[in-house]
Specification:
The structure is a single chain. This protein has 17 helices and 23 strands. The protein is an alpha/beta fold. The strands form 6 sheets. It has a 7-stranded mixed sheet, with helices on both faces. The protein has a 6-stranded mixed sheet with strand order 10-9-8-11-12-22, with helices on both faces. Helix 9 links the parallel strand 11 and strand 12.
Length: 504
Amino acid sequence: MEVKKLKNYINGQWVESETNRWLEVRNPATNEILALCPETTPEEIDRTVRAAQEAFWSWRTTPPPRRSKLLFQFHEKLQRHFDEILEIIVNENGKTLADARGEMTRAMEYVEHACAGPELLKGSHAEDVGTGVDTMYIREPLGVFVFLPPFNFPAMIALYFVWALAAGDTVIVKSSRLCPMTITRIFEIVEECSFPKGVLNLLHGSGSVVGEALITHPGTAGVSFVGSSEVGERVYKTAIQHNKRAQCQGGAKNHVLIAEDAVLEEVMQNVVDSCFGHVGERCFAVSNVLAVEKVYDKVKETFIELSKKLVLGYGMDPGVTLGPVVSREALNEILAEIDQGIKDGATLLLDGRNPRVPKYPNGYFLGPTILEAEPEMRIFQKEIFGPVRCLKRVKDLAEGVEIINQSRYGHTANIYTENGGWAREFARLVNVGQVGINIGTPAPIAYFPVGGRKVSMFGDIRGRANEAIDFYTDKKVIISRWHSSFRGVTKTLDDGFAMKYGKK
């Protein structure tokens, strides 16, 4: 049977690429080829940017309530196809059905929040800042925005574009090379709505070819990126060198700190879920588990025991709680990091290498792998995008905070404690963008911003929630004075004021 070739969506039409290079999209659980993804050509990229540019002014002058109605329509149609999209996510990404449902639920919240565009786009006004002088600012959209989403959330993060649409910008999404089928299906749903041609566009291909060309194209205004810190830094520098706006969220090496008063029987399952949910392929995943001396041995024992209960398999099968990693290449890189960690002196506590998954012998599976490691070790410091986690005994909470702040990443840190003072102090001291208190995965809901510090974030404005409107628009300040007036009105007002308050 012939494998489907994915098409680009340009100016309201599905177009088969003229490229001679096609990239395979595989099911990570079965190694089956699902589709072929084109390496979009430079000519097709240029044509797409021009279409988005031509559509911009008409879309920019479309009243925000009208744009909002189209987003409501989009939301309603996405809801109809909710379960279908879940299965596509599982098949091309490898995550479990439960994890895919969580992703789509949050993605729908993004669209819901963007529907509030008419409220979010309000400006501000102050009268009489000088004699007869008023000042106001309005928000103006900027043009064509490029979106470079990662493979690990092929629906949720790709849908960052809804805030740009609400703001009046036009959009080009460059799909993830590994997981392009989910956003393709979403754009098929886009086509069912009444968005004008050129407002929404989808291109396929690798980041180094298609993404780079979109960032540097003179017709684009900015880029939103989520991915590794190394690539994020490169995207950010390239964008600003070409006078573009850039919001680039990078990687993470998140820590959880377990205090001596933590209710272990209540929290340890949450710790395990935070470590191994989405097979560890998420920026909010807990990577390093720190526990104070008094409870360390119990934490280690329980953590290993619960991790062993995770069930490997194809995400659509009932009872599966841990799917494969996204690609054979990713699996090989993770295995190399485990080997290096052991060479560096880390102690292997639970070995997930070479697991038996009888129904899926060709899948890219790795069971939960746990090591005792020290902060100076590579495996403790480097982001491992997979089910590999480190344990570390700490003397007290102060040492735990010190270890967290030594990390080059600054995405998320978590504490488990029943002491409010400890939690408050922890939240103030850790140098990260998100803090969890008795919550291992503190991913903010759609109407709160998200982003890290240090190398976990490049740029100073986040690309979602209310901050997204700041990113996708610019504030234009208008200062005005008018010289005409109604003669005598001021005196009438002054006399009325005097009569009411007894002034002379």
